[in-house]
Amino acid sequence: MGSLLRNQKARNALLQAVFVGALGSLVIAGALIAQQNMAAQGITSGFDFLFKPTGWEVTFSLLPAKPTDPYWWYFLIGIINTLFLGAFGLVTATIVGTVVGLARTSSNDLARLLGRSYVDVFRNIPLILQVFFWNALITHLPPPREAHEAWGFALTSRGLYVPILNVHGLAFAGAMVALLAAIVLPIWLGRTARLGSPPEQRRPLQLAAAILALACAVLILFLGRLPDTALMNVPALRGLNLQGGLRVPPEFTALVVAIAIYGGSYIAEIVRGGFKAVGRGQVEAANSLGLTPWQVFSRVRLPLALRAMLPILANQYVWLMKATTLGIAVGFADFFMIVALTINHSGQTLEAIGILMAGFLIINLSLAALFNRINKAIALKGNQLRG
Amino acid sequence: MTDLAPPAPGMLEDLRRRFFASPLQALVSLLSLGLIALVGWKLLNWALLSAVFDPSQGAEACHRAAGACWSVIAARWRIILFGLYPYEEQWRSALACVAVVAMTVLSCIPAFWTGRRIAAIWLAGTTVFYVLMKGGVLGLSYVGEESWGGLALTLFIFVATCLIGFPLSIVLALLRRSELPWISRTTGLIIDAVRSLPLISILFTFAIVLPFALPHWLQGDKLYRVIVGSALFFAAYQAEIVRGGMQGVAHGQGEAAMALGLSYWQRVSRILLPQAMRNALPATINQFVISFKETSLVVIVGFFEIIASGNAAYGTGEWRFAYAEVYTFIAFIYFVFVFSLSRYGAFLERRMSVGER
């Protein structure tokens, strides 16, 4: 035994076995105790509960939901809500961040001052405080009868009312896909190597593809129109409440605004860092070649800055995605809130936490994988001189 | 002999060059100026000119005024800052906050940057805080954790998180760098799993789910479970920062130490860590800033920290309308702490880059 302990290999193996074994037994002991506790409360462990009806309402859902729906359907709703909120939050935060970041790198002192004060103020206030603030602001707005109205939009204490097209939900989704295709197709056509012709001669093809996709979108919308209704569904006051239009609930608006403002202040710093990373020599070279300021920006500084920004931006997006879990603070039914409610109502604690972890792992890993692909696709080829 | 240097531009000419060099520049300048003037005037008007400061007139005066109603702060500041802490004992809560701030300021001074001094300061500060808050000794009456609240609770969670999380992060970083594959892989798995989860879900697990999986004698108070959870989260992020700092230490350093016959602990504590911490300092300060902001999340698992006490301060009775003033006040408190910490981080970065130029 003594000689075995003096053998380095044996000692290392023993050390590792002890370490992993201790951690493993901790987890197993915890799981056993949990199972015992749950059995004492009459809860059977396992994933059977996923197919039982929930018996409670969900406050916000893009898909039809009623209390007789099973748990797995509610989890799906939660994930879709989280992705929906995340998509809105990320896009708006990116827009805000780009504008503020450009202001911070501008040569104009006043614009820089504005950008800097924005970042300093909003970065240093916790996100949850901003969420609470915007939520309180919206719920303290006047009731629907005295709403602030403009161009068919209405701001009330019950949320934001926006006019929508009178079309079927599926048709609307289809039209969105067609619109997306109208943007993506021409870009793909311009870059793909599958067509024999050189990219410069593809302008007519790109134009045709875009027009075709747009026509498809209009056609789908036309076919999907609800019969016997006006083209637009504009919110209007009827009795004490607003009828028609689409009601965006206050908690969703508050979350998007807060994520846009807070996330925007972080993204602004990333944008600034990206532009700072562009070598001086490259900008000077572009200037001395006689490019106009706009050309220097759009052909030299922006493409190079974008490549420096992307990896950090990907991290920030993953972070913002996790920040959507603040929905529970104001009652927005995101993935985390559905999990928390499930634990309250069904008691399936361990299973629900497992589903939560798996869900966030999948969301975060796919986001990271997507950005890795983009990063690889646009990376500068070959060895570049820096500086 | 004529002076060849161009004449110094006059003030008008200087202004023209800086802000109106081209039509685009002029547009940006005018837009920015307009925005600054508009926001500045609105804020000034709201916060000072049309604001109500006198609490003696009650909420009625605020309804008539167009500006902010600071009398809500004057009337309710003790709730916001101290929460449910017994009214006569709130001076203790205030003193405890001062102790924590003093401890933080002291540990920011480079003269105290040796492991022993930092440890001494933090142990002393935390002990003073704990004794003042909890009482039961030295003639102070006992106040249980369930009635702690407001700023003191926020600070306590932050300090305790750092105090547990920081040593833990070094341990995790060392384990992840271990040469034994199973140890480094398992640690890596734990770190990555914690990092991929939102903090709220970890706080929720520790506050509400963990009692299920722990034997009764190990459960402890909810406050301490949440602190352990938040420390684990902090440590997972900080471990990666420390590991990054360790990777920046040249290989030769460790090899030289080995050749001198130093033991593992000597190599880690005398050679590796001091250099790694220096590399990791800016990111570490940033992590402190982030985790200070994130202590605010404990409001979700039902703690009466500063945001929850703010909600309570305007949520009842006559001050129901005054949410903006209360949130502004809390935002200002956070801003003072976070902004000074991050300015300090920027100062450190400049200070350390002097040696590398």
UniProtKB/TrEMBL annotation, chain A:
GO terms for cellular component: ATP-binding cassette (ABC) transporter complex. Its main location: membrane. GO terms for biological process: amino acid transport. The keyword Transmembrane applies. The keyword Kinase does not apply. It comes from Starkeya nomas. This is ABC transmembrane type-1 domain-containing protein. The lineage of its organism: Bacteria, Pseudomonadati, Pseudomonadota, Alphaproteobacteria, Hyphomicrobiales. NCBIfam families: HEQRo_perm_3TM (TIGR01726). InterPro entries: AA_ABC_transptr_permease_3TM, ArtM/GltK/GlnP/TcyL/YhdX-like, MetI-like, MetI-like_sf.
UniProtKB/TrEMBL annotation, chain B:
Signal peptide: none annotated. The chain crosses the membrane at residues 20-44, 93-113, 120-142, 148-175, 196-217, 223-239, 295-314, 326-347. One of its GO terms (molecular function) is transmembrane transporter activity. It is a multi-pass membrane protein. Coiled coil: none annotated. Gene3D superfamilies: MetI-like. CDD domains: TM_PBP2. Keywords: Cell membrane, Membrane, Transmembrane, Transmembrane helix, Transport. GO terms for cellular component: ATP-binding cassette (ABC) transporter complex. Residues 151-342 form the ABC transmembrane type-1 domain. It comes from Starkeya nomas. It is found in: Cell inner membrane; Cell membrane. PANTHER family: INNER MEMBRANE AMINO-ACID ABC TRANSPORTER PERMEASE PROTEIN YHDY, MEMBRANE COMPONENT OF AMINO ACID ABC TRANSPORTER. Its main location: membrane. This is Inner membrane amino-acid ABC transporter permease protein YhdY. Belongs to the binding-protein-dependent transport system permease family. HisMQ subfamily. Pfam families: BPD_transp_1. GO terms for biological process: amino acid transport. InterPro entries: AA_ABC_transptr_permease_3TM (IPR010065), ArtM/GltK/GlnP/TcyL/YhdX-like (IPR043429), MetI-like (IPR000515), MetI-like_sf (IPR035906). It comes from the Bacteria.
